[in-house]
Amino acid sequence: MSIYYKAPVRDLCFVIEELIGLQDYVGMEGVEELDAELVSAILEEAGRLASEEWAPLNSSGDRQGCVLENGQVKLPDGFIEAYKSFTEAGWNGINAPVEHGGQGLPEVIASATQEIWHGANMALALAPMLSAGATELLAQHGDTELQQRYLDKLVSGEWTGTMDLSEPQAGSDLGQVAARALPDETGDSYRLFGQKIFITWGDHQAAENIIHLVLARTPDAPAGHRGISLFLVPKFLVNADGSLGERNAVFCDSLEHKVGIHASPTCTIRYGDNQGNGAVGYLVGELNRGLNHMFTMMNEARHKVGVQGIGIGERVYQGALAFARERVQGRRPGGKESVPILGHPDVRRMLMTIRAQTEAMRALALVSAAYQDKALHASDSEERAAAQRRVDLFTPVVKAVASDWAVDSASLGIQVHGGMGFVEELEAAQLWRDVRIAPIYEGTNGIQAQDFTLRKVLKDSGETLEAVLGEIEQVVAELRADSVVSDLGARLKEGVGTVRESTRYLLENQEDPFVSLSAATPYMMQAGCLFGAWQLGRAALVARAVIERGGDGDGFYTAKLHTARFYMRHILPRVHAYTPAVCGGSDELEAIEERHW
Amino acid sequence: MSIYYKAPVRDLCFVIEELIGLQDYVGMEGVEELDAELVSAILEEAGRLASEEWAPLNSSGDRQGCVLENGQVKLPDGFIEAYKSFTEAGWNGINAPVEHGGQGLPEVIASATQEIWHGANMALALAPMLSAGATELLAQHGDTELQQRYLDKLVSGEWTGTMDLSEPQAGSDLGQVAARALPDETGDSYRLFGQKIFITWGDHQAAENIIHLVLARTPDAPAGHRGISLFLVPKFLVNADGSLGERNAVFCDSLEHKVGIHASPTCTIRYGDNQGNGAVGYLVGELNRGLNHMFTMMNEARHKVGVQGIGIGERVYQGALAFARERVQGRRPGGKESVPILGHPDVRRMLMTIRAQTEAMRALALVSAAYQDKALHASDSEERAAAQRRVDLFTPVVKAVASDWAVDSASLGIQVHGGMGFVEELEAAQLWRDVRIAPIYEGTNGIQAQDFTLRKVLKDSGETLEAVLGEIEQVVAELRADSVVSDLGARLKEGVGTVRESTRYLLENQEDPFVSLSAATPYMMQAGCLFGAWQLGRAALVARAVIERGGDGDGFYTAKLHTARFYMRHILPRVHAYTPAVCGGSDELEAIEERHW
């Protein structure tokens, strides 16, 4: 069975170079040399590894899955080698600090490569994704000694990291965490006891050591979310010289039997052995500030889940398109011969839906990544703060809308395949199963919607959003000034009006939290539809200019115009369908009594 | 793990008795005694069998799946017994003719019980569903001898039936069927050669014999769909006295490895043995009219797939609701204690979406079933013809919209479960995997949309649809006259306007088939959204009257009002999102050149 994955380097470069632009990166610390040629070379090289080594294992990894044997997790064949190819080429530390062995490249490049890894093999890409979360926590909050002992190997990927948050009673509500951390007599370390669930890549043999970042409570810590601390718990203790010491009392007790990402080991992790000895752990950051520390890296993890959805969306598109080109069935009106199903309007509609959703979210995610770079590196502090507000606003949308649409796209991918989509011979069904986790983890999409509505819009009195709407209106004006795309501008203008109306309603009713909570998901979906349209509207303007000056040799810009046009007609109008739900108050849901369910 | 399935007898009875009414059935041949009490007793009894015997096997059947051993299909444990309980109680022939041992009950009752079987165990319910298709074909087109020899046992369920249509090159386009049927020297029978794929319940040990209804070509038959005939091919030949004779040359060569309905054996079927002997088959109906014969029963099969989606939607709702009641996580605004997640507005929104989609489609499907009864049994021939036009209009909508929404509902069901939705411990993931086939088989939903748009609306100059829109406007008027629900009427009126506008556009542009084909899916979805709203609008009127007269003791009618209100605000407004796609012409999709993909 052919493996359909080719990294979308052309479109990634288009967004990075033509929608974002590299000018802001010139002279940015560590990235002095970043130019179009280098960006393209980096992505091509990532694409090569992805296509040649990662993508071919996607389907076999799904079939084989992970096995727990004698307390050790066995990965599917080839996964250890594919992971090593990735780390040895330096991809793991792509945006990590140079002083710890990273490449120091900007987030926008890192995001682009992450899409490629997820598109090629989502289950495997989760290993470096989780490591990056642990690395960032340690880099931001760990003391010098912890950093010196652990950071370089996490950046190189010789060791992997995990994020140990959930417990059976503590999922979305981490205030319920119950794992205990007792201080050692020396005061240098702690002994951890308890259990965590849903720990991604919680155990495996692809790395020499696994560094768990664990939320737990010390004795006498306050109840709830203000009494939780963050600990580093290595699978093997690390000696002062960096060599590995004895096995720590942290164990994988079982693997979840999941509907997708079978090749990613999802572990139940136990701290403490049968003799009553706890796992040795080291405090990261301040006591009782564990959840706060965690939240500082949450934005990035959420952004990455969105990027993951985009990667799957791209792979879905490629697989469905390849099938639609090969599968001959039915005739076009007036035709005498059976044609590839790509000739049928409804199949085209499905493929364009997948493509439009994916390209819109790709552009939004990379734009958001560029703001992450600006928030860290811009010379002006106000500029940094403004960029951070954009990141804060976009992140829940990227996470939730891109992941929701990825599930939708994957389902359309199945539909394009017809009966072949329902059998596990081609990859269509696997992509749908795999990506179904994305709307759930790193904060369910419902949590994202709350975050977006309450913290990112209402708390800010809608100011950051209004600034974005103002920018969208500039795009509207430019589109309307060009007769070829003026209709796109008209639709985009309607979208702005709808989101503004919803925002006004929510601001006016913000004293009642139930109104905001009832509206949150449809409101965030409205914003996501519009943000995607904004980016494709911008893309249409770039495309028009290139086409006008005769520069569309390979048809890329004409294709982009098709995508933008399709999006404005088929996807953007969803904003209007959400309005009654957003602006309808909370009575409807609150009035439902127990006996009415 | 508890098994969550309780047949929704209360709502089924509500639709049958209060939205449809039993008055039309009084005096109908064979159903003289049908009253509310009997309907309720029948459904309660089906519900008992479903909950006690079928539902508990749903999850074990999924895990165990079917196995092909020495050419024989082995079903999961308990399936043979559960099937026998069903047939022995007479459920298989619920609406089959009394003269062949059936119960002769109307389609509306049969549909209601079918929802129950699919809700309890979709994989098992496929066995009688396919048998019913074969039975109907034989009853309508078989000659007396074939009927006498095969019909009684198919009706009783002692034998099962299959529909053998697809071949590797002939899926949506059955004109490509290549299986051959050579006339025997006697002229009484044929010898079949060839292969069919995706044959549901194509082999198993739950019945003594399996009756395959097979599309094949005789020598010198015209090419394409006008040269296909229908044959009956039994697994075991049947002697003149009804006893079983020798094994026929029809074999299951392999089982598909599917993403869902693991307990339903999906077979590759081969006709002809290794010695070159064909399978013995008997012509059903006229030579070369096989596809026509098939289409006469297609409506009913499509209707049943919609009903299947509704059954799954109901089970999804029950499972998600039970989880939401038990799972304690997070606080409500202003609250100090963690609450069951049913208390969170966004969880309520998800549950209500599942419920509103399910109840709307349930009502539409049963109303359509009642028109099936009228089309067969009404005394007046014009009334019968008018009823048949309604059936023709509603069937593709019931099939496609109910199945699409069932997938959506099942995905929401996973989301309500959070991380537990992604693991295969509870049933949420299985329901989602199982129901994903429904938008594909019995004609993909894209084919349904074509059928609806071209054959059911445009070919009829929109007359049947306009008659329905007129009826919806009466509901609008009644809703608007009642201040408590007048807002529902206002929204319903907007929906009518939108669908009418789309219809006008399509009628005006019908000379260009690409316009209709490009619009078909969004147009059908618009109609489906509106038809569902119509039925829930009617339900709201009934509920208002009961509540006004103080008859809502158990809160059922208040709950129904909540559902109708939610639907009008959250689901119906989708109609507006489809308009630009429906009324946008075909240029956008047609202009995409090969290099633009």
From TrEMBL, chains A, B:
Its cofactor is FAD. Its EC number is 1.3.99.41. Residues 469-591 form the Acetyl-CoA dehydrogenase-like C-terminal domain. It comes from the Bacteria. It catalyses: 3-(methylsulfanyl)propanoyl-CoA + oxidized [electron-transfer flavoprotein] + H(+) = 3-(methylsulfanyl)acryloyl-CoA + reduced [electron-transfer flavoprotein]. Residues 42-158 form the Acyl-CoA dehydrogenase/oxidase N-terminal domain. GO terms for molecular function: flavin adenine dinucleotide binding; oxidoreductase activity, acting on the CH-CH group of donors. Keywords: FAD, Flavoprotein, Oxidoreductase. InterPro entries: Acyl-CoA_dh-like_C_dom, Acyl-CoA_Oxase/DH_mid-dom, Acyl-CoA_Oxase/DH_mid-dom_sf, AcylCo_DH-like_C, AcylCo_DH/oxidase_C, AcylCoA_DH/ox_N, AcylCoA_DH/ox_N_sf, AcylCoA_DH/oxidase_NM_dom_sf. The keyword Oxidoreductase applies. Residues 288-450 form the Acyl-CoA dehydrogenase/oxidase C-terminal domain. The keyword Flavoprotein applies. Residues 163-270 form the Acyl-CoA oxidase/dehydrogenase middle domain. It is an enzyme of class 1 (oxidoreductase). Involved in the assimilation of dimethylsulphoniopropionate (DMSP), an important compound in the fixation of carbon in marine phytoplankton, by mediating the conversion of 3-(methylthio)propanoyl-CoA (MMPA-CoA) to 3-(methylthio)acryloyl-CoA (MTA-CoA). PANTHER family: ACYL-COA DEHYDROGENASE, BROAD-SPECIFICITY LINEAR ACYL-COA DEHYDROGENASE FADE5. Belongs to the acyl-CoA dehydrogenase family. This is 3-methylmercaptopropionyl-CoA dehydrogenase. It comes from Halorhodospira halochloris. The lineage of its organism: Bacteria, Pseudomonadati, Pseudomonadota, Gammaproteobacteria, Chromatiales.
